Amino acid sequence: MTTAATAEMGAGPKPASRSFFARLLQGDQVAHAITFVAAATILLITTMLVVVLWNNSALPRAKFGLSFFIGRVWDPVSGQFGALPFVYGTLVTTAVSLVLGVPLGLGAAIFLAELAPPKISDSLTFVIELLAAVPSVIYGLLGIFLVVPFVRTTLAPALKHTLGFLPLFQGPCYGVSFLAAGLVLAIMIVPFIVSVSREVLLAVPTDQREAALSLGSTRWESTWKVVVPFALPGVLGSVFLAMARALGETMAVTMVVGNVPDIKASLLAPGYSIAAVIANEFTEATGDLYLQALIELGLVLFLVTFILNGLARLLILVTSQRGGTT
Amino acid sequence: MSGWAGSGHGRYRKVVSYLMLGGTALCALLVVGVLFFILGSLVWKGGSDINLNFFTKLPTPVGVTGGGMANAIVGSMKLLLLASLIGVPFGVVGGIYMAEFGGKVSAFVLQYTADLLNGVPSIVIGIFAYSLIVLRMKHFSAIAGGFALGIMMIPVTLRSTEQFLRSVPVAMREAAMALGASKWKTIVSVVVPAAYRGILTAILLSLARVAGETAPLLFTAFNNRFWSPGWNQPIASLPVVVYTYGISAYEDWHRQAWAAGLVLLGMVLLTNIIARAILSRGISAPR
User: Fold this and answer.
1) Residue B205: which residues within 8 A CB-CB, separation 6 or more?
2) If both were cysteines, with which of A135, A147, A269, B91 could A143 make a disulfide (CB 3.0 to 4.6 Å apart)?
3) Is the Cβ pair A115, B239 closer than 8 Å?
């Protein structure tokens, strides 16, 4: 960077006398070392996270191997640990949240980036960023007392009435369900989709829009057929970010999913998720195998979100650079 | 594109355009409306239970009216203090490295890692703190909770400090160095003061972020129905209280949960708004 060039210029009035020792006395090397150590802690923490999670989940890995993820029975008393119900619940709730949240978030992002006057767009974006700051336990609270009753009394009967022929919407519904968790998660991930998608949409060069408009396309056609495809990798990145967040979300899901380790096709049935079982059973886990089985679930969560986030960041980076170079 | 067909087709395309664009506006309104819905329902459900007792009394057993959450409020403050003792120095100093000393490659690697660490589910950070501290000490403690929150603060503070430092004009650094200042002197006396509003914003935003975290506290700080003297015992915190009261079976605990939720959300949103207000008064205005 430019600072590297200025470092040479800042060599002081008597460059000849600036031995390594002199520079050390001036403090630059010391400052460099200290600040580097502080920055490198994040590398250390990340490495330690992997090591700690890996070492503390050795027992179930040795005992169950990969069948840990296929087993359907989670019975701590008899020492049987099959994680499939949790994996299934995590995937289902995340899928529901994406189906609901992605169109909503993308729509809002398009409005904020393409249509709204800058002043309105900025203040609405501010509100949406505040929404992202709302603690997840608050979403859970609203989930328990507002979303769950709404699902039980209004949404589930309506869905059964109209789409009841699908296996997705069958069986009794007590409110706590995959659907309720998916609904709450959808609201939680939308702010992330909006803020990242808006950024990448804004990074699309103006001449792309102008070219489309000058060829006679309508405003929507220029947006949907030119701007969005141009920014697609970044939009995809925002979806991955949201997905990672939905997979790892703990409190809100724990409070509304029902916490029943069953695998049901119906979205109206209660279920469980990886993060929820860790939150509920960690402090009660008796015995090393039980505790380590929960830590292995944490390891899985960590690895999956790590990979998803890594992909997302790359996609967003690629898109914003593409916008910059054209 | 074959957009030049008849005028009927042109009208159809225009209608589609208006409809879809109107749809996007509706999406934006809906998303923005959610925040006001959340605020509104918390005020409606919890507003009437916030009184002086709430801030000064300990929780009462089920069925006994009155009582408050003084211990949880103080507990949250103590946990945040511990968290900032870890998060602020490492985050800010590390941010200085990335903006001022880091080469292209090292800065990129650190940025990427920080972003990934930032995306790690908070419950996993809880397991981490549990394995490192609770397992060794053999009991839950404020220290373990503060450690978990501090770990979460580092990447957030680091990334935003870096960005605010980078927004300080290069010319200011060059001017200081041209006067013979060494690099660290330039950073300490010119660059950091120029970006102090930004750094303050970064710290406040990261505090607001961890203030609402519940999952990493469940098995580190745990919970406590009473005052928690010192730093070495289980400690109550607002988010955990909202959770335990929310999932309980008692009507008056539910009302307390709403009240605690309102206080928590108020604190978090206020911190966010203050942070941005500080920022909007100009980041590179040197004192």
Assistant:
1) B156, B160, B271, B272, B275
2) A147
3) no
Measured between beta carbons, the chain B residues lying within 8 angstroms of A275 are 121, 123, 215
Count Cβ atoms below 10 Å from residue B4 Cβ, excluding itself: 9
Position B285 confidence tier, pLDDT thresholds 50, 70, 90: very low
For residue A310, the distance in angstroms to the closest alpha carbon of chain B comes to 6
- Say whether residue A126 is in contact with chain B using an 8 A CB cutoff: yes
Nearest CA in chain B to A26: B182
Q: Which residue of A has its CA nearest to B241?
A: A137
Please tell me which of the candidates B100, B212, B254 has its beta carbon nearest to residue A137.
B212
pLDDT interval class at A32 (50, 70, 90): confident
What SS3 class is residue A176?
Answer: coil
Query: Are A28 and A79 within one domain?
Result: no
Give domain limits for chain B.
7-48, 55-280
Alpha-carbon distance B57 to nearest alpha carbon in chain A (angstroms): 23
Q: Is A43 in contact with B110 (Cβ distance < 8 A)?
A: yes
**Looking at the predicted structure, is the pLDDT value of residue A182 above 50?**
yes
A280 and A241 belong to one structural domain: yes
- Report yes or no on A97 lying in a domain: yes
Q: Which domain holds residue A20?
A: 2-55
Size of interface A-B (CB pairs under 8 A): 299
The predicted structure's pLDDT at residue B54: 86
Name the 3-class secondary structure at A27.
coil
Kindly state whether residues A30 and A94 are assigned to the same domain: no
Q: Say if residue B1's pLDDT is above 70.
A: no
Q: Which CATH superfamily is domain B55-280 in?
A: MetI-like (1.10.3720.10)
Q: Quick count: other Cβ atoms within 10 Å of Cβ A31?
A: 21
Q: Exposed/middle/buried for B150, CB within 10 Å: 0-12, 13-18, 19+? A: buried
In a domain, A188, yes or no: yes
Give the helix/strand (H/E) hosting A65: none
User: Which pTM was predicted?
Assistant: 0.90
Find the closest chain A residue to B109 by CA distance: A43
The domain total for chain A is 2
Chain-chain contact of B16 with A43 (C-beta, under 8 angstroms): no
* pLDDT band at residue A4 using 50, 70 and 90 as cut-offs: very low
Interchain contact A175–B (C-beta under 8 A): no
Dihedral angle of Cα A243, A245, A246, A247, to the nearest 10 degrees: 90
Contacts of A136 in chain B (CB under 8 A): 212, 214-215
The stretches of chain B forming alpha helices (DSSP H) are: 7-46, 52-56, 70-96, 104-119, 122-129, 135-137, 142-166, 170-178, 183-186, 192-194, 196-211, 215-218, 238-246, 251-280
> How far does Cα A118 stand from its chain's mean position?
28
Check if A307 contacts B (Cβ < 8 Å): no
Q: Cβ of A2 and B170 within 8 Å?
A: yes
A281 touching B, CB under 8 A? no
Residue recorded with tokens 């969005």: A228
